[in-house]
Design goal:
The protein is an alpha+beta fold. Helix content is about 55%, strand content about 15%. It contains 14 helices and 13 strands. The protein has a 5-stranded antiparallel beta sheet, covered by helices on one side. Helix 12 packs parallel to helix 13. The protein is rod-shaped and about 200 Å long.
């Protein structure tokens, strides 16, 4: 049985809401149902949908036990009875009158189980600003209900692996506790995008901090040696120790030289007043003999005591002088011994170290170390900044995946002919632009394209309240309907309408006959 582009030929309705009984032909590319408000126009559209999808008992006309809808299509006739209480009945027969055994499966080949009226769907984004957020959310939900897509954690993991292992590891760091994979695929994508976006803000902040820190850690003005800071620190310690050791040795030797020079001067000055040592020894021996003789003479010659005492005092005076000179000689000998020792120590001295050159080497080693340390700090800061920025880029790519790429793949899998269609938070977008910000004609085209894709075998579109459309919008609607070979069935609030070819006028729940309309005219 062929169901391609099924069209509506005739509708019969009995006891549905305000409609007691109506039968209208709906052949042709366009059929308008006109009349004043509350006359049953929308009920006819709901009856067409009800024949295909079913109606609940609330649609049964008050006081009646059941409602009945018969919808003749281009390939079958649907007969549905809705009971006010009890079980409904559904019968479908083919063009030759043969019953269709699997009725529900047959209906599924004609239309999507979810109701999707493209114009009503588009109009949710219009009107005053008050309440628009809620209407946009409802518009999003209607699209999601009409496209029952699912997205599992395994699907997400596969998509992320396609970006690379780094992205997979990055996603593991994101808190996904609020993402419910039992929801619609677009809602899951939106939740994943939000989670990655929040984590990306953190990474961007860290990257900015790292880049700011990098500005405060510039590279050194002089090129840093290739050696490590540790090696350069050891080199600096080595030359510093050598410098200070050499400086200390140089100071010690200078002190030794000064001491030797003082001893030499003292020796030279004292030498002028000192006799020959042998001569002094002979003199001392002479006076010691005289001293002894005098002592004997004093003891033996009492009478010569005074003279002897005088000689004794004279000899003692001379001896005192000899003692002084002896001490001076001893001091002189000690100074000469010290001088000899110093001269012997200094005689083996090497060339004096070049302290100025060593100080320059120490300063150079210090500068090398500081350059290396500054370069290391700069390199570390640059590495941290690069890593932070790379992580931020990873999360930007994840945000892009969940915001754009993955929804596009899902839309592609749904085979919807609207490129760039996606869900961004509470609103529907096309190529990143909110649907309600597009021109109305563009929105209508998008809505009809979606409706046609959701129901590829359904060759008709139901439009309720077409009087709200402008001339350009109706033209856009007619253009896309013609392009897709769709039959338009539309309602208009038009109190002055007259029935005619392709026009049904509803009044008090009944269709106005052409003849009756002519009599009224």
């Amino acid at each position: 049985m062929k169901n391609d582009k099924v069209k509506v030929h005739e509708l019969r309705v009995r006891n549905v809401k305000c409609v007691k009984e109506v039968a209208i032909g709906l052949d042709g590319e366009l059929h308008e149902i006109r009349g004043d408000a509350g006359q049953g126009k929308t009920t006819l559209l709901e009856s067409i949908e009800g024949a295909l999808r079913g109606l609940d008992a609330s649609y049964v006309r008050k006081g009646e036990t059941s409602a009945e809808i018969e919808l003749r299509l281009s390939n079958a006739t649907i007969h549905r009875i809705i009971a006010a209480e009890g079980k409904d009945q559904l019968m479908i027969s083919t063009e030759d009158g043969s019953p269709v055994e699997e009725a529900k499966q047959f209906l599924a080949t004609i239309c999507n189980p979810a109701t999707f009226r493209p114009i009503s769907w588009v109009q949710l984004g219009g009107g005053e600003a008050r309440g628009r957020t809620e209407r946009l959310r409802r518009q999003r939900d209607m699209l999601l209900e009409a496209i029952p897509l699912s997205l599992s954690a395994q699907d997400v993991a596969k998509a992320v692996r396609g970006l690379g292992e780094d992205h997979r590891d990055a996603l593991k760091q994101v808190n996904l506790d609020d993402v419910d994979f039992d929801q619609h695929a677009f809602v899951v994508c939106s939740g994943l995008e939000k989670a990655c976006y929040e984590y990306r803000k953190l990474q961007n902040s860290r990257a900015e901090d790292a880049e700011s820190a990098l500005k405060h850690v510039p590279p050194p003005e002089r090129p840093a040696p290739k050696a490590t800071a540790k090696d350069l620190r050891e080199a600096l310690d080595s030359v510093t120790e050598a410098y200070h050791t050499a400086k200390a040795r140089t100071g010690n030797r200078q002190a030794l030289r000064e001491r030797a020079e003082k001893l030499r001067s003292a020796i030279d000055e004292a030498q002028e007043d000192l006799p020959d040592a042998d001569q002094l020894e002979r003199t001392r021996a002479k006076y010691e003999t005289a001293h002894d003789d005098a002592r004997i003479d004093v003891e033996r010659l009492e009478k010569e005591l005074a003279e002897a005492k005088a000689r004794l005092r004279d000899a003692e005076t001379k001896l005192d002088k000899c003692d002084v000179l002896t001490r001076k000689l001893e001091a002189q000998s000690a100074r000469k011994a010290d001088l000899a020792a110093l001269e012997e120590e200094l005689s083996g001295d090497e060339d004096a170290p070049d302290l100025e050159a060593m100080a320059e080497a120490m300063a150079e080693a210090q500068a090398d170390l500081e350059a290396r340390q500054a370069q290391d700090k700069h390199d570390e800061a640059a590495q941290q900044a690069a890593q932070a920025r790379a992580r931020a880029i990873l999360f930007s790519e994840l945000v892009e995946l969940f915001r754009d790429e993955l929804p596009k793949r899902l839309i592609a899998e749904a085979d919807l002919p609207v490129e760039g269609l996606a869900v961004d938070g509470d609103q529907v977008t096309v190529d990143g632009v909110p649907l309600h910000q597009l021109g109305t004609s563009q929105q209508i085209t998008v809505g009809v394209l979606i409706a046609s894709a959701l129901n590829p075998n359904s060759g008709f579109v139901l439009v309720d309240g077409a009087e709200s459309l402008g001339v350009a919008d109706r033209k856009a609607l007619a253009t896309i309907a013609k392009k897709l070979d769709l039959q338009l069935i539309m309602t208009y609030v038009d109190p002055d309408a007259s029935p005619g070819d392709g026009v049904t006028v509803m009044q008090a729940g009944a269709a106005v006959e052409v003849a009756a309309a002519a009599e009224v005219a």
